[in-house]
Design goal:
Rossmann fold, disordered C terminus, alpha/beta
Length: 135
Amino acid sequence: MPRTTVLVVDDDKNTLQSLDFILTAAGFDVLTATDGQSALARIRSGIGTPGSVRLLITDIQIPGHSGLELIDEIHRMRIGLPVLVITAYRDRHLEDELQSRGCTEVLDKPLDEERLIGRVKRSVARADPPAQSQR
């Protein structure tokens, strides 16, 4: 069974390295990007391929496109990519902005490893429901 590919976007290289290590150890293939344009390029290049990105994990404050703009662009692409937001600056306004975009998965930095892995697995499972058995 192929491993699930997760794209992590954060402008902090230490955060990217930590998330790459944690998620790889949990059995995921991990791609990284440090800005919104690079993230969109990675997503676009893999659409419809076996190793395509199945989950986006993004910080809100990233160069190029903000995390919110990145989420908006993914919605415009109509690819149904689930998004998990990580942020050190959560407030009520941000929560409202994320909910208006259909994004309910938010984790606060610093990240708890077990909580992160649990949310990633839950997000992927929601996006890829088990196949129905055929008779």
